Input
Amino acid sequence: MDFNLTAEQEMIKKTIREFADAEVAPGALERDRTKQFPADIFKKLGEMGIMGLPFPEEYGGGGADTISFAIVTEELSRACGSTGITYSAHISLGGAPINMFGTEEQKRKYLAPICTGESFGAFGLTEPNAGSDAGGTRTSAKEENGEWVINGSKCFITNASYAKHLALTAVTGQSEEGKEISAIIVPTDAKGFKVIDNYEKMGLHSSNTTELVMEDVRVPTENLLGKRGEGFKQFLITLDGGRIGIGAMAVGIAQAAYDKASQYAKERKQFGKSLSSFQAIQFKLADMALKIELARTMVYKAAWLKDNGKPFTKEAAMCKLYASEICMEVTDQAVQIHGGYGYMKDYHVERYMRDAKLLEIGEGTSEIQRIVIAREIGCS
Output
């Protein structure tokens, strides 16, 4: 087994780490306070060719692998969780379904602008009554005179305010098995399509999280993504890849929290000694470092399996579950090591802790991941 990154992956890691330190991290605290979307950062990432990193070069992508995507997501998240989740969703939820299931024409029309950063990637799945139970989808799409007529709503959708189009799931009919759910590509400037950006969130303040409302939105029937009735199956495949992104995000935020805690422990004096000289603090930092490295290894393994065309559903769920839960734990311990200062915004660690919580919820809660893993190991 070779755990070394390739020369290309090492180059991407070096480039994106330098960019994250110089361009992303300095404004993270202020963006968290003002909730300003980091549009300028993503403009620069687009110029660097990072916005389409894992997609084919013929559509403006970089032709890189999933491990490279995980590296970029981790490094951006280490600097700013909001930037990390924006990028992860752009790739894994916005671009990936079109790349996997789109026709050649759809890829050239809709994937290419995502690759260049002209449009952000977004995916409309979650509804007020259909979160973990996506089979509860109520948004409908009826075929009428060569068009889909779409009605319904979506919630907690990332990047939609900055997306020119997105794929969304809708009920397109009924069968003996139940609802027929399909995926349809919808321009966000279509008549009757409304994006509402007014959530008050716990964390990830400078990422864009929206509601979508569709009232008699009409799109051509050729905007169907993949096969009719396979939207549910497509979104499950999409989420497998997305969970690698969430895992990488979790590793990045946890790494940032560990770095701050380690630095603080070395500098802070108590009872005439640095905090890092006390065994209680040493054990905390050792456990944090251990769990971060394990989580990173699991993320890379899931990404490697995906890149090599092997089944990765179980490993994607495992890496997402473990990384998100240790991220919550590590950020909590980072606040604890900082003591009273950890509760103050200027020390960053309370932001990491707030940002971390979403990772145990988004793209399948921890409970859903355990269901997926149990199914994959033959328990159901």
Observations:
- The CA atoms of residues 120 and 332 lie 32 Å apart.
